[in-house]
Every structure is written in C-alpha cells, then in structure tokens.
Model the fold of this input.
Amino acid sequence: MGPHPAVAAIRLAVRRVLHDILTDNSTTELPADGPLVLVACSGGADSMALASALAFEAPKLGIRAGAVTVDHGLQPGSDLRAAEVVVRMTALGLSPVESLAVTVGREGGPEAAARDARYAALDEAAQRLGAAAVLLGHTRDDQAETVLLGLARGSGIRSLSGMAETSGVAGRYRRPFLGVDRQTARKACMVQSLPVWDDPHNADPAYTRSRLRHEGLPALEKALGKGVVEALARTAQLSRDDADALDSWAAQAETTVRDDTGLLECAKLFALPPAVRRRILRRAAIDAGAPAGSLFARHIEEIDRLITGWRGQKAINLPGRVVAQRQGGRLVIRQG
Done:
C-alpha cells in the first residue's frame, strides 16, 4: 500500500525540484558526498511537510538534506520554539540543522522587514554551508495571496506574477509547493503525525496578509465560487511569462536608447512601447541606488512623464536619495 495521497503529492513535488537541482548543477564540481540542499523551516505545516518530503527523497538521489530555522525574535519564547524546530528537523534525519537569530528592522513595515532579515540570514547560511539550494514552503494559497496583494498595490504585471518557482542568486531558492494547496501540506503532516506550530501572526488582523487570508479570499470565494485560488495561481504563471518576455525586450532595447556617454535619450525612449520604456526607467533608477522594494509604480510614472509629458518639470526625488531629471534631451538619474 502506497503513502497517503497528500504525502505522495508533497514527495512528488520535492522529487521534481531535486531532479532540477541536480540537472542545474550537472556541470559543477559537487562535493564527494553529494550536494547539500537546505529546507527553511518555521515549524508550520507547510515547511514541516516540505522538510519531511526532503528527508525522504534526498537520500535516494545522493543529496544531503539539511535545515535552517529563523528566529525573528518578535514573540516571547521565539528562541525556545526555534530550538524545538531544530529538534524536530534532527529527528527527521536532516543534517546540518541550524537556528539563525536575526534582528528585524522597521524599514518597509513589519512584514517586509521580517522578510528582508529572514532572507539575509538564509543567504548567509547557504553560502557558509555551501548549499546548492534552499527549499521554501510557499504553497498555491500563498501564491494567490501574493497576486492579490500585487493587484491591490497597482504595481504592474511583474507584481501579478507572484513568486517564482526559482529565484535568488544562481537560482538558490526553490519553491516546490506552488502547485500544492495549503490543506494538502497540513494533511500530510497530520497523517505522518508531524507536530506543527501555528504562528499567531498568521491570524493577527494587524497584518495585511493575515486579513487577506482570513477575510479577503473567503469573501472572494463566496462571491465568485470555488476555484479562486487556482485561478489566481494560473494568473501568476501567465503574468510571469509575459513579464519575462517584456523584461527581455527592455534589456535589448536599453542598449539602443543610450548616447555615447551612457545617458538615456528622451526621444528614443519616447518611441518605445510604454511597458518596455518603463522597465528601462525602473532599472535605471535601481542601478542609481533606489531600493527595488521601495520603488513603486507611481515613481516610475513620474519619471515617465519627463519623457512623455515634458513641461519643464523640476527634478523628481525617488527612494534612496535618487534624483531623476531631464537635461537637454537626456534623462539623468543619479544620487542626489
């Protein structure tokens, strides 16, 4: 008798990603004892299911499986919970297993600050341990929430594309569960008797994602019927394909709209389709020092008006103390 369908589903998702990791590293000299793949585990149902599947599948492919858990220090006793996760990961046979304590700042709001601190810690651990990849437990439900948040921000098609299956430096981060719903992951934990921790922040209405999860998505399903989550996940993939194509077009076009000194020429920018032009402007602002996470559609629209609606406007102040201004038919974006 085979495993429970929920367990089979999560194992299949992980097996596919592990095969991709081996293929991506086929031309790289790997350690004699096999490449190391880490799972980022909070102790919640999604990441516990992911850890169990990694522990089961990795040895069959000659892959070493380890785990890291991040202690954000935002709740009383968070260090004790992190220590419990380490014990659970070790019991699954994962090695090495580490708890990483971080200090969460305030920039961008609590959710963004915690995310930035978490990824910085994961990047450091992956590099220090020589990990070929880090698996993240984001599910199809998380993807649907991300798409809706992007829609609410009005940030464009890239925001609607949600989370990528592969991201980070050299494809470090992998998300095997983007095609798996949250309930399947929780069921897999239940049938395997895996203890899980439900983060109270996930039910706290003070957090935007929590309100969307417990109020927004249920209201949409009530109004539109079941299948909203699946539809939003499909929207993410279609949007990502379109955004990737436009990004490629913009990268090629950028070389044709700069003068001999490297400045952007307004007339040549004006001739480009808006979607392509705005991608070039966004990239130029980021290259000048504007933080990508703080650069919103309204900022790019203001820069774009220097090209399409020039009326002698003054310089535009952007995040990161970056300034954009038009000078003699050229667009200058630099640190102010």
About this structure: The chain is about 50% helix and 15% strand.
